[in-house]
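Standup notes
- HV: blocked on the assembly model, inputs below
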Amino acid sequence: MSSFDFDVAIVGSGPAGIAAATALSNAGVENIVVYEREATVGGIPQHTHHPSFGLRVFKRPMSGPKFIAALRRRCPKVRFETNTTITALRRGGELELASTSGLHNIRARHIILATGARETPRHGRLVSGLRPQGVTTTGALQQLIYTANQRPFTKPIIVGTELVSFSALWTLRHAEIKPLAMIEAGARISAYRPSTLLARAMGVPIHYNCEITDIAGRDTLSQITVCSQDSDVRTMACDGLIFTGSFIGENTIAMGSHLNLNAPNRIPQVDQNWITSDPGVSAIGNAIHPADTGDKCYLEGSNAGAYVAQLLAGKTTVNATFAEIRQGEGIKMTTPSILRDEPKGPSKFDLSFHVTKVFRGRVRVRRGGQIMHEKAISCLPTRRITLRNIRLQADMPIEVSLNSSRE
Amino acid sequence: MSEPHWDVIVIGGGVVGCAITRRFALAGAKTLLLERGRDILSGASKANSAILHTGFDAPPGSLEVSCMQAGYREYLEIHSRLNLPVLKTAALVIAWNEEQLSQLDGIVSKAHENGVADVQQISGLALHKREPGLSTKALGAVEVPHEYVIDPWSAPLAYLKQAVSVGAGYRFGTEVKSGAFDGEYWHLNAIDPDAEGKRYTGRIVINCTGTNGDNIEQICRKPNFEIRPRKGQFLVFDKSANSLINSIILPVPTPTTKGVVLTKTIFGNLLLGPTAEEQEDRNTARVERKMLDELVAAGTEMLPDLTNHEVTATYAGLRPATQFKDYQISAEPRKNWIGVNGIRSTGLTAALGIAAHVEKLCGETYSGTANFGQAPDPDWPVMPMLAEHELRAYQKGDGTEIICHCERVTRGEIEAALNDKSLPACDLGGLRRRTRVMMGRCNGFYCSARVNELTRGKISPPVVGRGEVRS
């Protein structure tokens, strides 16, 4: 008789978590539980009602809640436990949970962390000013408008031009709110250029090279001050300020656990099969590469779940040793961030990464100092770059570095 | 409704005003607290470093050190009855260079002079063993074993709740504008948030208005001090940074400032600050990017690993400094007015001691007037426990779900704070201070819509935006 409560416990019921559960269930693993700390299953998409989901998975655009409902129909046997927060992850497959009745522990043969990502809010960005009410994020805005049916602002300003920033714009449009402007610190938008069409259609100007130097308002937001690159200072009266993007992995559980973290960003290290430094724990989705689309997370979760099913069936094993994949200057994070050899030898894998600023040049992958792969790339921050079908032996440290073409 | 005649009217609901209201209410005085903000702690008291000081480095022989030490003792006597937490961290005054190293001796002897006998110097080796996260540049330290960390918001709230439980009154949103003394009673004129005039009558007035202290003092007399607001900016790092230090990390003070402190918070975060910036404005304290960047740099220099941790909050507060080092507490003979001014950053520690001092001063100065009714049997309100190292509601299981995931605040805790009979939260700041809701790393990304829904009609202004529901 095993002392495990579950074969697999999955933390987080967004697209990645549901995908892993589905893959495991399809592979015949029966005793699966998915924990969700919110009252409803689905993670961020559950609050995103515009049709930005489904294109990759279902070949048609769907709203977030419809996307989640369709995904759940694929795994009817999986058990979801909502209003359940994981408060600790311990060695030996143990999770401490907080439910409405307090704390208790469970054990699972394998644990998958799919805890998602959140935007960097005002304070994390160290923005100057007072602390009035009315300063928020896209995540909160979507819940206010779509879930709580509110019209919170009449003249808000959106900070950022990532894909999610246009999601904020779309969300405002749903509540018939026309924002005053979008503000971007860089010289161009962070999302793909066609995204500006929505802003243009709504008549919302985008101010480039602009930084917020003051937030004013004693109780509620009254205005912000914006400074442009050429030191043009202007004040803009507004009643809402929406900080968008700059996603951070929601890795509170991993940070408080025994898992190895990448030093600069404190994201848990994962290998090419999403296994962390603990062979009994996987980490998947936007928690480890904040942030990709729900569809991409779903596809990744399927692969990660299928791998865990193989592991539980004894069809493969996890190597005890691994090589670190170090990131050079200008690289924000790589996925995977560690590499393990497979039972049959060196693994063939896709290596993804994000850059910290606009980059055009060559990316090099070295193993023990020797260049093994090299590719010309041109990329923007917040975009995922993928080097496909890399084969490397995990016997010495691997380094991914950027070399600007001028060199 | 006509207002009753009060024995004592306390103006200002900071930590000092709350402690004084408690002291007089427990002594049997019919006591009223007037506060211009929507809740207590709307001024200087909402932003401090939350340290319970031993007084080891206060000026020997000062009123400040005696109030701090009396306050320290009383807090430790009463905290468990009020369910208020204490985190027993100790403090280390760090020498970062040879010059500071040579000053440690003096710090130890000053501490001994202040009666803090267990303060001693420790070697660089011993320091790094205790604090492995500190930069190797630290050369040595003075250890202060009994410097602790407390909850800066639950404590004053408990003081006022206890006062209310024995009959004290309070009026928020009430700004005192003028007053007159008729030889027996003070008649204070105040305005409410709708600018409507209100009149309050009491025998004795105690001015605890912090950064507005000299202006309010004018109602009775020409103040012999001037408030010179000093701004302090702080950064709160995420709970992941909490274990980077074990003790409170203090710098060797300079003649002008106590310097930047690194401390755990009772809520399990890491606090860095304050700056010390003189400013004219008494009412608003902005955070400024440049100073925050400088703070981060200073913090990282002390604690190199800090750079890998997320900032969850930035805030700024105003300390009601005066041109004098010591507190400015005095009673005006024959006018039944006590000014409690110039209570700088040590106010949280000293508040209970200041209250005892003021009660004594009151009895001595106004022996005829300060005869109050019989001291009531004190009630001891049990405060909600918000300290990370103690058992929280979500851990015990209060039958409700967690709403704020970063700070793990349950719906039950939020509802209890909103529906509290004696001192409900009536604005977002008050709710945050009572529960920790929305105080975490996501700044409300996950929970503001839920909090908005739970607080609808109960707090003003609403959590986000205008609270307008679409038809």
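- HV (later): unblocked. Residues 174 and 192 of chain B are 5 Å apart (CA to CA). Chain B touches chain A through 56 residues (CB under 8 Å).
- Next: hand off to the docking folks.
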